[in-house]
Amino acid sequence: MPTKTEQRKLLRQHIRQLRQQLSPAVQQQAATALATQVLALPQLATCQHIALYLANDGELDTLPLIQALWQLGKTLYLPVLHPFAAGYLVFVQYQQHTRLYPNNFGIAEPLPECHRLAPVKQLDMIFTPLVAFDAAGNRLGMGGGFYDRTLAQLPTDSHCQLIGLAHACQQVDDLPCESWDIPLQQIITPEQVLKF
């Protein structure tokens, strides 16, 4: 019987292969459908400061959503590897003219300039990438723990909504969870909005 760590590793490999096999046409349709799902969220009207991510490794593409949120006048932020605290993220304002640079993992991110940073507790909504999820709102990330460590800083009474974005093929029956995993309040796929 594989250990929980081994189970999580195997699951990551399997789901990453599934989403990497999605054709560009399917990815494009999924990105457009995702934007439609998010724009229909009733709570979006009261959210101004929104963090999301740029797709990598077959993740659900957020560019159509980003464009739509900019058109609504929302202030957007991208996750950036913390320059001083290893294993953590900071959120940096992202505008149409913001220059991006590859980080240590080859993921594009803006420079962590102080005047563009938003403390995690000031964000109204954080859209997270994920590798796999289950029907209880549990999220399996890439294994670095960056989001779990960063989101653990939120106070228990935080107004910030944690929402995962994923393709439907990333859903599994039951995730082998660890004590440090931060569950999500919602997961949105191109087909549905799951609330927990």
TrEMBL record:
MF terms in GO: 5-formyltetrahydrofolate cyclo-ligase activity
Catalytic activity: (6S)-5-formyl-5,6,7,8-tetrahydrofolate + ATP = (6R)-5,10-methenyltetrahydrofolate + ADP + phosphate
Cofactor(s) in the UniProt record: Mg(2+)
EC main group: ligase
InterPro entries (UniProt xref): FTHF_cligase, FTHF_cligase-like_sf, NagB/RpiA_transferase-like
UniProt EC number: 6.3.3.2
A Pfam family it matches: 5-FTHF_cyc-lig
Protein name: 5-formyltetrahydrofolate cyclo-ligase
Homology family: Belongs to the 5-formyltetrahydrofolate cyclo-ligase family.
Keywords: ATP-binding, Ligase, Magnesium, Metal-binding, Nucleotide-binding
Keyword Ligase among record annotations: yes
